[in-house]
Write a structure and sequence with these properties.
The chain is 33% helix and 19% strand. The chain is α/β, with parallel strands linked by helices and 251 residues long. It binds adenosine-5'-triphosphate and magnesium ion (MG).
């Protein structure tokens, strides 16, 4: 294997393109403020996932929402950190939003090859994994260069095969998959077929019932295990509230 100067093999045996640099974004509450109310809500979400009645613990989990900007990436990232902080739990956070990737801003790594290059056949999975400064948390970024044809790429069979391959190859770790909004794109629906559980995010005073319902209609309902109400307009201390999926009561 050829290892260029910018790359080194990390502790887990993964190639690390450049690694994360600098202080992680303040929105990664689970990292910076693990005892805040928000972090506590994320921990509740983790606990719920680990103790669902009559269901095994889901290992391949997709985070999605109806509309743009509802907090999918933040919740996916904080949940990933929360699971990685548990004993013996390794996490691969996969960024499947090729249109508006945002994990590099949160985890502070330079634009790096990932899902887009892999499904185009221009990179190998193991060469794209980024080790974060958080122990046991690795990221597969979306793309180094935004692809010209994200829809074609994401709709292609190669996208579903990638998720399948990741879940088989890394079968000792949790896969948390950050996606684009359902209303704008078809990719979450394609990814949904390959996951074990789906968490829906909705934003307080922003997501309309019709949007939420339409999004739900496009997902396999039995896989939607919960919703997160992301209350952006609330006081900083009360930003997330987790509840079991039950949108009739919710609205
Ligand atoms: N609980 C929160 N507290 C403070 N800011 C938040 C919170 N949730 C989201 N935000 C901010 O709102 C914006 C959108 O969040 P995020 O990127 O996580 O949403 P998204 O659903 O992934 O958006 P997109 O559909 O564009 O991918 C970001 O600037 C983020 O920092
Ligand atoms: Mg996002």
């Amino acid at each position: 294997m050829k290892v260029s100067k910018a790359m080194e093999i990390n502790d887990e045996g993964f190639l690390n393109q450049a690694g994360t640099t600098g202080r992680l974004d303040d929105h990664l509450y689970m990292h910076h403020m693990p005892y805040s109310y928000t972090a506590e809500q994320i921990r509740k979400l983790r606990t719920f996932l680990f103790h669902m009645q009559d269901k095994p613990i889901p290992r391949v989990i997709m985070i999605t929402s109806a509309l743009p900007g509802e907090g999918k990436s933040l919740i996916a990232s904080n949940l990933a950190i929360s699971i990685a902080k548990g004993d013996d739990q390794y996490v691969l956070l996969v960024e499947c939003d090729l249109r508006k990737p945002s994990l590099s801003n949160l985890f502070k790594y330079p634009p790096s090859k990932g899902v887009s290059e892999i499904i185009q056949g221009n990179a190998k999975i193991e060469d794209c994994l980024i080790k974060t400064s958080i122990n046991k948390l690795t990221i597969l970024p979306a793309a180094k260069e935004p692809p010209a044809n994200p829809s074609e790429l994401l709709e292609s069979k190669r996208m579903s095969s990638l998720i399948k391959e990741l879940s088989e190859r890394y079968n000792d770790r949790f896969l948390i998959i950050d996606t684009s909004p359902i209303q704008a794109t078809v990719d979450p629906k394609i990814i949904a077929d390959q996951v074990e559980a789906i968490i829906m995010v909705s934003r307080y005073r922003y997501t309309k019932e019709a949007d939420f319902k339409m999004a739900m209609e496009n997902l396999p309902k039995d896989k939607v295990v919960g919703t997160v109400l992301n209350a952006l307009d609330e006081l900083p201390a009360k930003k997330y509230k987790y509840r079991k999926y039950n949108y009739h009561k919710y609205y």
